[in-house]
Write a structure and sequence with these properties.
Length: about 325
């Protein structure tokens, strides 16, 4: 990971970021070609061919790479960008990214040093508050993010802003083909009732409904869902339960989602007597899954979910076999 020089004031940095590309630069006219993008914070003239994009939202980073762009800077929750791995291809050179602070508190000076020609943000409160400062550095587009259900529309909106809508069509077509592949591999997904249980804490579980990101992927394939996991809590995409309600977590197959900090809680909960009494547990139909992936709200995460579903639920009978 490249390290930044000693911090300077924003006022001192902005002239440096603006240097270069004078009238005697033969490529200046090409770089200045723009189109107007209407977004959550207004209108922005966006370069037709941006070369140095900075991204402040991890799902946007994933979408940007899916669309064929390689950003130069990104917000991350860890100083080394390790938390970005879930959102990027395995071979993506994360070490080449300038890390510009966390999403909720982007480092404006680091962004200026990164010298982007376009900043892509979203309309969460912290980034909306920073919009004016961001716009002083480079043209800034604030995309809409309405929660985990935005993962599909987010790619479309980003592609429109970058004037490459056909690339979004390719992303969607690849996903649709993968969905069909899993559907074919399972055989009859509608006959399999899949429960999604997220370990939120040592004493709290969340049942992921069809409104959640992983629930939407299951719905695309056509899996059945337990009757008690269809309607989320008000203003949520999940149902929160305490451990005494573990029987509500049952299904033909149960995927148990936990991230790194809750893997210990998952082991404790799934080894309890109440959990072990679940018919799915007794049938050996409990599958551990990584919530960092299953909760990532990206097409890349959706493909990983599909891979996990196929690995766990594909019909072992060869097609055309006896």
């Amino acid at each position: 990971m490249r390290r930044l020089a000693a911090p300077l004031t924003l006022a001192a940095l902005l002239p440096l970021a603006a240097c270069g590309g004078g009238d005697d630069d033969p490529a200046a006219d090409d770089r200045q070609a723009t189109h107007t993008v209407v977004h959550a914070q207004g209108e922005t003239e966006v370069p037709d061919d941006p070369q140095r994009i900075a991204v402040l939202w991890r799902p946007t980073l994933s979408a940007l790479v899916d669309l064929g762009f390689e950003p130069v800077a990104a917000a991350a929750e860890t100083g080394d960008g390790a938390d970005l791995a879930t959102f990027l291809p395995d071979d993506f050179p994360v070490e080449n990214l300038e890390i510009v602070g966390p999403t909720n508190e982007p480092d404006i000076e680091a962004l200026a040093v990164a010298d982007p020609d376009l900043i892509v943000s979203v309309d969460i409160a912290a980034l909306a508050d920073a919009y004016d400062d961001l716009s002083q550095i480079a043209p800034t587009v604030s995309l809409t993010w309405d929660g985990t259900g935005s993962w599909r529309s987010h790619v479309d909106e980003l592609a429109e802003a970058l004037n490459v809508p056909e690339r979004a069509d390719e992303v969607v077509a690849e996903y649709d083909a993968h969905v069909q592949q899993v559907r074919d591999a399972v055989g009859d997904p509608g006959a399999v009732e899949v429960s999604l249980v997220r370990v939120q804490a040592a004493d709290v579980l969340r049942l992921e409904t069809p409104a959640s990101f992983p629930g939407q992927v299951l719905d695309d394939v056509g899996f059945a869902r337990p009757a008690g996991q269809l309607e989320p809590d008000p203003d949520r995409d999940f149902i929160e339960i305490s451990l005494e309600l573990i029987p509500e977590a049952d299904g033909d197959v149960v995927f148990v989602l936990a991230n790194g900090e809750n893997t210990g809680a998952r082991e404790t909960i799934t080894s309890s007597a109440l959990w072990q009494n679940l018919p799915a547990a007794q049938a050996g139909q409990v599958v551990d899954a990584d919530y960092d992936v299953w909760g990532s709200s990206t097409y890349r995460g959706a493909h990983a979910i599909l891979d996990d579903l196929e690995a766990a639920l594909a019909d072992p009978t060869p097609q055309g076999g006896a």
